[in-house]
Amino acid sequence: MTSFVYLTAERLREIENEVKELKTNGRKEMANSIAEARSFGDLSENAEYDAAKDAQGLLELKISKMEDLLSRAKIIDNSTLPEGEVHILSKVKVKNLNNSKTFEYLIVSPEEADLQQGKIALTSPVGKALMGKKLGEKVDAQVPAGIIKFEILSIN
Description:
Layout: E1 5-7, H1 9-38, H2 47-71, E2 73-75, E3 91-96, E4 102-108, E5 119-121, H3 125-130, E6 138-143, E7 146-155
Parallel strand pairs: 1-2, 4-5
Antiparallel strand pairs: 3-4, 3-7, 6-7
Helix pairs in contact: 1-2
């Protein structure tokens, strides 16, 4: 069964560009590294050659995984999602009722999650707890450290 991966149009373009870069420049640099390592002599005892071949395998694996991701990608159209409740691409401002701090999160697919940028995956404990909730609701999120209680302050 093929599972879909939901991406924004922007993230889809980023991945497509990265795959293109890896296939052209990445492969060219890898071929140069292998050729250089091959010039060091006997391949059976050539650590540089082995390392370059391993790096080539990792590059090809990365390209393959990214192409698989692109083949399963579905573009998220924000205009078709319900208003007034938390869904993917919602920007949610919450108050942590345990410590009274406020946080703003953008709910995204796991492939786009980046906590440093305030992007949390809808599959994360906090993301799951917020999904489908409405403005003003109180939510309990079960995280590894225990339960965090949130109040939803705004949804955009």
